[in-house]
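ok so dumb question maybe but i'm new to this and my supervisor (M.) told me to 'just get the structure for Sugar phosphate isomerase/epimerase' and walked off. so i did the thing. is this what she meant?? sequence i used:
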Amino acid sequence: MNLSRRQFLYATGGAAALAASPGSLSAFVGGAACPFRLSVINDEISQDFEHSCQVAAEEFKLHWIELRGMWNKNIVALTPKEIEDSRRILQKYKLRVTDIASPLFKVDWPGAPLSKAAEHRDQFHAATDFKQQEEVLNSCINLAKAFNTNRIRCFDFWRLEDQKPYRAAMDQKLREAAETCQKHGMILLLENEMSCNTATGPEAARTLSAITNSNFMLNWDPGNAGAAGEAKPFPDGYNLLPKNRIGHCHAKNVERKPDGKFSWEPVGVGLVDWTGQLRALAADGYNKAVSLETHWRGAGTPEASTRISMQQLKAALAKAGYAC
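this is what came out, is it supposed to look like this??
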């Protein structure tokens, strides 16, 4: 594949960061033990699940992986045979699962005006409506048990221009889902998502304050917060969050444009200071997953782009002082 000049700079910039900063191999050897479960979302590499696992384990040297979709199916649509096949592949590559990255509640809220933010398409091979969400939740619980994890990712419905008339009911729906998860020993992780009703640090702090179930936690994604328009997801948005309620973290980066639009970027480029964010997470006692959700496609393919972003995430970790 021929890289454009910009793609080449991304790639060589990541390599330079590894060579010239604490992100070098010597820093990895001498750094503090990794405080996080470093991970990657499998389908950010490939829809071929075995290939994704091979890259994660053998090239990225990971012990953890996050599951969202495989073989052109969302994870909640897998057959029993496909679940067994994927379990065998995970065992082969000695990978453990951080969480089930489900599409739970990424649907319209019933009775509300249709959201302008709704992605009315088969996003990540998921296409369900509100009436199917109880079935989706039950499937996620069964999948979490099958993959030996206790964490399930969710959202809080397509973003409304005015969510106030519906917010209390949405909160109650999330409480009920958390209660269902609690009965099975599961943690429900709400991702702050720019196209859903909890998008930014302040909004995440509000939702966590309203829903106090101990097993209802945040999947903190500063890149998403930046895409939603938050000027400084770290440190400003992060500082608003109750640190003991962060249960998962997605790593990616974003740039805001003068017209208000945004573009995804590799981890080392953009408005999120990942070295600072990683240091703060560790200092605040966070020790769960930091999972690469690349989204950026500047290297031409998901796999090539993920390689560059993983290299830059490891460089940020090394600069923060951790050998991951």
